[in-house]
Amino acid sequence: MVYHSTIQTVLLVIGGCLVLASAQPSSVNFTVSHDADTDFFTVREGQVLPLNITITGGVDLGIISVVGTDDSIYEIVNATELNITGSGDLPVMMTVHVRGKALGISELELRVKRDGMAKEMVGEYTIKVIRVPTILDFLFTYLLLVWLCLSYVTTGAKMQPKVIWSKMKPPWGILIGMLGQFILMPLWAFALTKIFSLDNETALGLIFVGTCPGGWLSNIFSLLLDCDFVLSLTMTFCSTVMAMGMMPLNLFIYATPLVADNSELKTPFVELAIQLAVLVIPIGVGMGLCYKFEKFKKICEKLLKPLAGILILLALGLGIPSQLYIFTSPWQVWVVSALLPIGGVLLGGIIAKIICLPKKSVITVALETGAQNALLAKTMLDLFYPRPESDLVGRVPLMTSLISLVEGIVVTLAYVLIRYVCCRKDEDQQDLVEKDANESDKAEEVEKGGKQEDQKTEEESQTNFTDDSPTDQAHVNPVFDDTEENEQTWA
Question: What PANTHER family does its record include (predicted)?
């Protein structure tokens, strides 16, 4: 009985395998030809291009059709179907016209419908839609490079070795910042990719931002919010230096599983490390110029806030019109782009508070942890990845920069308003106190002056009554003197 049951089980397994094998869709041999020599088809937004598909075998009888999988990215202009009545019809070619609609990557499916059977997918081909390049894209890309260089030069100009060394004794703020930026933030970014089940391009962009060092945004808002600006500069310098090794390492740990099947998204780790090393040069240039020329330091101190404001306006003026496609991103991109910096601020602030750092240092560490240098990520993506991958991956850095900037501006305006209201109340109270003090001082002076006058009058009166000299008495009582003279005369 045992043998019979074993044989039955084996037969059932074999039968199930045969059923599964028969259920698998049959393959159709086909080739795709187009103008570019690539294994994918690229079309621009609004452009219509032909795609030639040649069926060479795998089907003897049936209707072959081409179907798009995402109508929001591209559409097939001509509804093409090809009826094959026998193997003698092969090879046969069909031309499909594809119109690009929006930035994205999707698949074009080849389906076959045989008699008495439903349509089955027998092949697919990748369609990539890229944005139409404009002059604003060119200007914005190079503006980012200029922005990064200027920000790092001014950062170096504001840094003094003695002051930096003072912030490293004890180095708790620096250590917390490095812990947040290179351990907690990449882990938080990776967790968000899993929580929201992001596609590979969005997930890679989020991890890129999470592994970046701190940047200009944290420095600017530390300055505007009257935080520990020197600590912010020191943390930015240290994180930029450490990013040469930590950023490629974190990308290797968290991004490799996402891009294993896509050669277009593989990260060039060596080139990335070299580019990060190059970014340290402007900091050294700024420190050298500041050390050599004292006037350069004063110029940087005067121009730091105006330059920051001008760069922000230029970035918004050029960046938003040239990168409008980010506003059509899925809601997941918006949510994770907002949660990444908020989570970083909370994590950095909580740890700094546990270590019992001063209040200004807590806010500085929180800003430095949450405000990653997302524009650095965007610049690296434009340099290393082709389109449309660079644009798709770059949605998160751009969105994170924009949201962080808006959040920082709102917080700064609230801080300035609160400070204005509170300081004005304090000034009014101080004015009242000073006014009361002045009035009391005047009253005391008046009272003191009155006492001095009374004392002076009393002294004068006492002097008049105590002086008995003959001359004065004669001058005071002339009548009595005349009487005495008359009496002597009569005698």
Answer: ILEAL SODIUM_BILE ACID COTRANSPORTER, SODIUM-BILE ACID COTRANSPORTER
